Amino acid sequence: MSPNTTNINANAAHHRVTGSTPQSRTSSRPATPLNTSKINGQARIPLEADDFSDFGDDWDDDMDDRRSALHRPADGRSKQPLLRRDDDEERGRSGFGSPDPPERPPLFTRRSTMRSRSPDTQAKLATRKKYTYAAFFLGLSLVSFVIQTETAVYIQHELGWNKAYCMLYLTHGSWSLLWPFQLLILRLQKWKMPWHTFWRRHVYLVRTTAQMVELQELTIPRGQRSPIPYMLRMTAFVTCALTVAGGSWYVAVNLTSPSDLTAIYNCSAFFAYAFSVPILKEKLRLDKSFAVLVAIIGVLIVAYGDSSQTKHGGKSGGSVGGGKEKEPSNQVAGNLIIGVGSVLYGFYEVLYKRLACPPEGTSPGRGMIFANTFGSLIGSFTLLVLWVPLPFLHVLGWEIFELPRGETAWLLLISVLANATFSGSFLVLISLTSPVLSSVAALLTIFLVAIVDWLWTGVPLAPAAVVGGLLIIVAFLLLSYSTYREMSEERRKKQVDISESDSDKDDD
């Protein structure tokens, strides 16, 4: 017998006595923590569509998916001891001589079933999920806007508290509550999770989404710098555009008629589409243009088709109509000011979509969380910086600073919180869909306010309000169908590009 054979037999006898199993060097290697891809010579971290979006199973699935396939247990169990305890009755290989052989791992798990879906099915599910989120926030924005409009009309016309810039400051400043309220809801959903784990995951989600916004890509290069400077610059830029656009409403409301104010202000839907073509690279489509035109015609019919004043609220708070009719002091100047405001509001919506929204392909949950976070940044910038004009307006006598009291204070609180809810929902809606669809959706509030007045006061709807409202609804449905069809065409185009690239690789 050779010396090598003697050593092998001795080792085998040693393992039978000790009950241990020789370990492979390959299995002792640490699992690869993160899959990366290289783009332009740079390692990039892939962030999948549902990456950490809902703080639940998606997080665990994602972290588990990033483990190497060689080290991922097939039966879904990990961190099991390799050796049995000393008090085990049976040792060695199980299954030989034992009456009950070990169960085989299941062939299909939930994760493997999810991965077996075709790209077309996954894209359809993602689109359906996105539109479900958008429908919910559309309903929430419409209800909150009606509440804001009715309370603002009562405060300004019945209670006589008409402080334009102060209301604008309080309204935009209330947006700072969006992120804390969102964090509270997320925490209630995951209240069993330790706070430090929950906070770490939330910060990671917001930070990586901000990096995606800055790069406008779904993959982040390793060593990417902090997104904080970019977000601070964009917050200041977008907030200033929003403040000027919203302030024009308050300036023009005392200069022009409610009908002109309503008609010109809501033309922002047209300007949102006009700016989307060069800035967002949207195609100029005939069906979209026709839907926007129908919506504007509906607004004009509501504004000018009835002799009574049109009650309508501004997206930045405030209201028009509902009080005693008075002659406009300078209708031409008021129309010019609100015209500039309409252009700026359309520009603000497109600017927010371009500079502060994650790229296409981001999961709806991630987009929703980041939209409310950015809304809080706008509110915080307003509270910390835009208080400066208040003392100057007070000293010059243009607007005496006076805090509301009693009933006015409570109703103003309701109006401000309703606007914060509307604005947060509106930001989410723009992030999930487009500025054009969101703008036309906001026009539905004109018809809803008229219906609420009819139910509240008993005054029947005017024929012009009914016809104009129906035209706005038709325009919104046409635009929704056009947007959905455009997304389907883009999805099919991407699938063709992917299949062609795969066939080229096979030919090579």
- Structural class by SSE content: mainly alpha
C-alpha Rg, in Å? 30 Å
First-to-last CA distance? 55 Å
- Proportion of residues in extended strands: under 5%
Strand tally is 5
Helix amount:
55-70%
Provide the succession of SSEs: HEEHHHHHHEHHHHEEHHHHHHH
Main sheet makeup: 3 strands, antiparallel
Model regions low in confidence, pLDDT < 50 over at least 5 residues = 1-43, 48-76, 84-116
**Average predicted confidence as pLDDT:** 77
Number of helices: 18
Q: Globular, elongated, flat, extended or rod-shaped: what is the shape?
A: globular
Instruction: Enumerate the strands of the largest sheet in spatial order, edge to edge or round the barrel.
Output: 1-2-3
Biased composition (Basic and acidic residues): 64-93
Biased composition (Acidic residues): 48-63
Pfam families: CSG2
InterPro entries: Csg2, EmrE-like, Solute_c_fam_35_mem_F3/F4
Describe the structure.
Helix content is 65%, strand content 3%. The chain is mainly alpha-helical. The strands form two sheets. A three-stranded antiparallel sheet has the order 1-2-3. A two-stranded antiparallel sheet has the order 4-5. The radius of gyration is 30 Å and the shape is globular. The two termini are 55 Å apart. Mean pLDDT is 77; it is low at 1-43, 48-76 and 84-116.
